[in-house]
Write a structure and sequence with these properties.
mainly alpha; Fumarate Reductase Cytochrome B subunit; two-stranded antiparallel sheet; 4 strands; elongated
């Protein structure tokens, strides 16, 4: 059975690495630095730039899903197939939504590589003011708390855990090639059972 396209495999593991680095940068900043320290700001800049990378890579991965050739899916029961599709599309959505929510939820410009500043989404604050919403109830606060609490601490970890658990289920319980297809280059199965490159 053939593997996923090389670009898709590289993108998958790059995204996994960048997402892990994003979490590490956030928790290191909160745990080991204090507000007002230079290190606190540098780790925040690192976290925001990693988030921008996740946003760009997430869009690229979602687009390439419909462009690159994919291996024939393994046989699954209907609920397994629907669950797989749901988790995959939710993951794509969260890879894009989480950085976007952070951008919409902060009230300062984003320093890209601490050199170029991307302007804040100030129009949300203006919209909140037009609605007469307080600082704690406006859209800006909602996006902020979604990013730092329910999204990053609960929903995205659950999706990632489900994705990993499904890959291990394929590998150990179903004993199929799903995990190997994303890890290495496999040949196509010949009628005699041998592998051809």
């Amino acid at each position: 059975m053939p593997s996923y396209h090389l670009l898709a495999r590289l993108l998958h593991w790059i995204i996994a690495t960048v997402v892990l680095a994003t979490y590490i940068s956030a928790y290191y900043r909160v745990t080991f630095t204090l507000q007002g320290e230079a290190a606190n700001w540098y780790w925040l800049v690192a976290h925001m730039n990693l988030g921008v990378a996740v946003f760009v890579l997430g869009i690229a991965a979602f687009a390439l899903r419909f462009i690159l050739p994919r291996p024939r899916p393994v046989r699954l029961r209907l609920w397994e197939r629907l669950g797989s599709l749901a988790v995959h599309y939710l993951l794509y959505g969260f890879l894009i939504l989480m950085p976007l929510a952070a951008y919409l939820g902060i009230d300062f410009d984003i320093p890209l590589l601490n050199q170029v500043y991307f302007p804040r989404a100030s129009h949300l604050g203006e919209f909140d003011a037009w609605l007469g919403a307080s600082d704690n109830l406006g859209l800006t606060r909602w996006f902020y708390y979604f990013h730092v609490e329910s999204g990053s601490e609960l929903l995205l970890p659950l999706l990632l855990a489900g994705h990993v658990a499904a890959a291990l289920y394929h590998h150990f319980a179903l004993a199929d090639d799903t995990l190997r297809q994303m890890w290495s280059e496999l040949g196509e199965q010949t009628p005699t059972g041998s592998m051809k490159p």
